[in-house]
């Protein structure tokens, strides 16, 4: 069944499963899916650029980008071409074999970062799992979140994880110990933590403390990396490099991918068969990621991100300044790089 939706002067064609409009679809969802999402009452049907349209044809400005995923917006022509071209050639092959887009994407990521090697996964969680395993040759990414609602249903989680107040150097000094600390995980800009931007002083301390303790410094850039700060990597703003960096969300423009970028020192500790993934790094996803990376790494694109971010922040301050319900408008902390 095809339903024609009209929004202003445009028509958008979307497919329907014959269940009706928003209310009927939402009722069907409650009966059919496991209830792990507290969804907003909107049934989205299509998107173009920064706009989304629901099944009734109502237009929305997409302010979440699929939770930091759609870096190029919806329906980007270069992304579509990359997906279609690769789908016509080769979509998936086992990691028992080589494939060209995977090698090309790894080459591009290494060339644009501190890293010497790359491991591909299917998500940010998997990327962090791999980073833990590379640091300890064990598992337990859920242990690295301090949020009670995420941890408690799965306890007991991986032991040996200590949480420290973000940015608190004195408290962190007490927990990084030589011979006992395998790795320190930190987001240069916290996502789930509330869009909190680190200071250069804190990241410099972590780099030095990890070096002294023989520990690995891991930057989780799943949300803050890949151009969101106006720098390709968020840590570039601070002038400090990690031993491992985890990526995901916008890398393939909506297709599932994660990546772990590591130094040769880290890579040399991992042997054949110690980690892997069936779908990770398949040709289709990697070719889409190449299209995304090509676009967002351009200096003109990154400059536009900085300009838009500044304009957006200033506009929000004008609109929301003095509103008692607004505590703070956050973004990349200014003037922290020497």
Concise structural overview:
It contains eleven helices and ten strands. By secondary structure, it is of the alpha+beta class.
Which features characterize this protein?
11 helices; disordered N terminus; five-stranded mixed sheet; transferase; alpha+beta; aminotransferase; Acetylornithine aminotransferase; 338 residues; three-stranded antiparallel sheet
Topology:
Layout lengths: L1 E6 L2 E6 L6 H11 L11 E5 L2 E4 L4 E3 L3 H4 L8 H11 L12 H12 L5 E5 L2 H13 L11 H4 L17 H5 L9 E4 L13 H14 L2 E5 L23 E4 L10 E5 L1 H4 L15 H14 L2 H22 L18
Parallel strand pairs: 7-8, 8-9
Antiparallel strand pairs: 1-2, 3-4, 4-5, 6-10, 9-10
Helix pairs in contact: 3-10, 4-10
Number of helices: 11
Which strand-content bin applies to the residues? Answer: 5-15%
Helix and strand run: EEHEEEHHHEHHHEHEEEHHH
Number of strands: 10
Strand line-up in the sheet with most strands: 6-10-9-8-7
Could you say which structural class the secondary elements and strand pairing correspond to?
A: alpha+beta
Q: Which sheet architecture does the biggest sheet show? A: 5 strands, mixed
| Radius of gyration, CA atoms, in whole angstroms | 22 Å
Global shape? globular
Low-confidence stretches: 1-19
Mean pLDDT over the full residue set:
89
* Secondary structure: helix percent: 25-40%
How widely separated are the two ends?
59 Å
